[in-house]
Design a protein that fits this description.
heterodimer, A: alpha/beta, four-stranded antiparallel sheet, 9 helices, 10 strands, B: mainly alpha, ABC transporter involved in vitamin B12 uptake, BtuC, two-stranded antiparallel sheet, 2% strand, binds adenosine-5'-diphosphate, binds magnesium ion
Chain lengths: 243, 290
């Protein structure tokens, strides 16, 4: 158990996680940890199980064995809606916005568990992070462009004031300039104390901003280390960095 | 002309009830993907409970309120003990469960109430109003006004409150709703409660005109389902339009053809929608699923 690498207790700790769809097992005993303040990148080919792992952390995917601890507390038995208040938010693959609702409604619903609070400061913070969203507050989410939707999806997750932000391929299908904006935002969030688990097709970009990384291959972690170690691993270079 | 107006008003009156039943189908379908064939039983419970409470001397307004609450309680129990435990089951199984529940509720109503037809007093008497040569019962206007108020209140609630938006969010994207921390189980339970209340109110409003008995729910569920399909399953506006249209189709075919055909219309509508336009009237045109 890597319980206290460098003496810091992990924010998220996963041990021997097994999960799948019906009889098909997608994760065959995954272990990993994320320390507070880190950006950890999860690298792996299509179908490796990255999304499944994120779904399991959020509680929208059933787990047949293993444990997930958040701040030392086992959360695997908690329903999804009870994990958000603990500080876990996810930006799911494909954005999954509430298409018929306005951008602002999407953001307000992101803060569902804090709906009794004054959320104006939170809203302002999201608009500051993504100024592009500011003039769109009354636009229907389903009508926004891909980049706007992705920023809205991240903003929605931030409205819950997460300690751990799970991002599933946030730059998929976006123009390079938007990809850069999103990566910049992630770095900025880190500087504000948000811990990030990042899945990215663009492994090179992800490793450039990550502190550490794990490589997931067909449901198993096959390598882990600092981002630079992983980026200079020959196998990783061949498989994911196209070198 | 007088005849036409007569059919028009009776069609709209019955159609308003179908619209409310269809709205119940829509709310539950949107929150959960379930088609609740026990929807007609809420209408029966509203009428029958009011009748029997009134019989033992409870003042009518109070009886009506208790009847709505009773239907809401039944809706919540149905969700808690029949739907929730079957979470994750396939659609057909869930539909079977609601059909089973409707049979059970009908049986229970037979025992708790009786097997006779019952009525309630008309709110503003039974002297018909003369409009363009047609004779309209004041209660018909009560039904139309009541249905309008229910639809408007529901719309305001859904459109103007964060809770209402959470209902839309759950309907639009259940995964995302769970990820932002909405307890979708609660939302589904809530949709059962609201649908039950709407059904019960419809039953109370229309009982003075159509009478009620333990088994009125069966046909009403079918008609409401036909109306919801006609409007496009999952579309609140479609449910209202579909309900009114079905009521009018029935009234005019009964009036100009033969009353024998009245109940056949709903079946024909279901078949026509299935084969000709599976999306319903508004299914494709409207983006918003409420
Ligand atoms: N809904 C599903 N039903 C059945 N199998 C699925 C489903 N989603 C993913 N899988 C399978 O699980 C494995 C892992 O998928 P996923 O977690 O989506 O991978 P990744 O996100 O790394 O591309 C794949 O083999 C995929 O085919
Ligand atoms: Mg994926």
């Amino acid at each position: 158990m890597e319980r206290t690498t460098h003496g810091v207790a992990p924010l998220l700790e996963i041990e021997n996680l097994i999960s799948g769809y019906g009889r098909i097992e997608a994760l065959h005993g995954v272990s990993m940890n994320i320390k507070p303040g880190e950006i950890v990148s999860l690298v792996g080919a299509n179908g490796a199980g990255k999304t499944t792992l994120l779904r399991a952390i959020s509680g929208v995917q059933s787990v047949s064995a293993g444990t997930i601890r958040f701040e030392g507390q086992a959360i695997d038995r908690l329903p999804a809606h009870a994990r958000v208040p603990l500080g876990i938010a996810q930006v799911p693959e494909g954005r999954q916005l509430f298409a018929p609702l306005t951008a602002t409604d999407n953001l307000m619903l992101g803060a569902w568990w804090r709906r009794a609070d004054d959320l104006s400061a939170e809203l302002a913070r999201v608009h500051e992070l993504f100024p592009m969203l500011r003039p769109l507050s009354r636009s229907t989410a389903g009508m926004l462009s891909g980049g706007q939707q992705q920023m809205l999806a991240i903003g929605r997750a931030l409205m819950s004031k997460p300690r751990l932000l799970l991002l599933d391929e946030p730059s998929l299908g976006l123009a390079p300039i938007l990809v850069d904006q999103i990566l910049d935002a992630i770095v900025r969030l880190k500087s504000e104390g948000v811990t990030v688990l990042l899945i990215e097709q663009n492994a090179r970009a992800a490793l450039a901003i990550a502190d550490r990384a794990y490589v997931l291959e067909t449901g198993r972690i096959t390598a882990s280390g600092t981002a630079s170690e992983i980026a200079s691993d020959e196998r990783v270079q061949r498989a994911y960095l196209g070198i | 002309m007088a005849e036409f107006l007569q059919f028009l008003f009776s069609g709209l009156t019955v159609g308003a009830v179908y619209a409310l039943v269809a709205l119940g189908f829509t709310l539950i379908y949107n929150a959960s993907g379930i088609i609740n064939f026990a929807q007609g039983e809420f209408v029966m419970l509203g009428g029958m409970t009011t009748v029997f409470l009134a019989l033992v001397g409870v003042p009518l307004p109070l009886a009506a309120v208790v009847a709505v609450l009773a239907a809401v309680a039944v809706g919540l129990l149905l969700h808690r003990f029949a739907i929730e435990p079957a979470r994750g089951a396939d659609t057909v199984s869930l539909i079977m469960i609601t059909i089973g529940a409707s049979i059970f509720l009908r049986g229970a109503a037979q025992v708790v109430f009786d097997k006779r037809f019952h009525s309630l007093p008309h709110l503003f008497g039974t002297d018909p109003l003369r409009i363009g040569g047609a004779a309209i019962l004041p209660q018909s206007l009560v039904v139309l006004a009541g249905a309008t108020v229910i639809v408007v209140l529901l719309w305001i609630f859904i459109d103007r409150t964060l809770f209402g938006k959470a209902v839309i969010a759950t309907a639009a994207n259940r995964l995302a709703a769970r990820l932002v921390g909405i307890n979708t189980g609660h939302m589904i339970g809530f949709s059962f409660a609201i649908s039950a209340a709407i059904g019960a109110l419809a039953g109370i409003l229309v009982t003075p005109i159509t009478l009620t008995s333990y088994d009125v729910g069966t046909l009403l569920a079918l008609k409401g389902f036909a109306a919801a399909m006609l409007g496009g399953m999952g579309y609140a506006l479609g449910a209202v339009v579909g309900g009114l249209l079905l009521g009018l189709l029935e009234a005019f075919s009964a009036g100009y053809l033969s009353s024998k055909y009245k109940d056949v219309v709903a079946f024909l509508v279901i078949l026509a929608v299935f084969f000709v336009m599976p999306q319903g009237l508004l299914g494709r045109a409207k983006v918003e699923r409420v």
